[in-house]
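User: hey, got a sec? need Transcriptional regulator folded
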Amino acid sequence: MRMTSMPDAMQTVLNDTDAVKALAALAQGNRLAVFRLLVVAGPGGLSVGNIAESLGLANATLSFHLKELANAGLITARQEGRYIYYAAAIDKMNALIGFLTENCCGGVPGLCEPVSPRKC
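Assistant: Yep! Here you go:
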């Protein structure tokens, strides 16, 4: 992943390899469900126990999926005491969306606008 500077902030920009890695990680039902749950949770994220309970996943299964998402850079982890909290890497998600729509429809304005006006 390479970073480019913008006037007021840093923006994550994906290359082909990073995009393929992220898409491959999301191309599995449980991992997609985990990622979407963490997007809803926002920057605070959720503990491993809360994720497992919300999705009905066994700890070993969840651990495998969290590792795959983390390896793709789609989630981050932080430890607080005995608990590990995971959060969606919103900058990476937005970079992936940007990568997929970068040259949409030959630059025709308005054709590649997101369905939802919400942005993270």
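Quick note: The first strand starts at residue 2 and ends at 5. Let me know if you need anything else on Transcriptional regulator.
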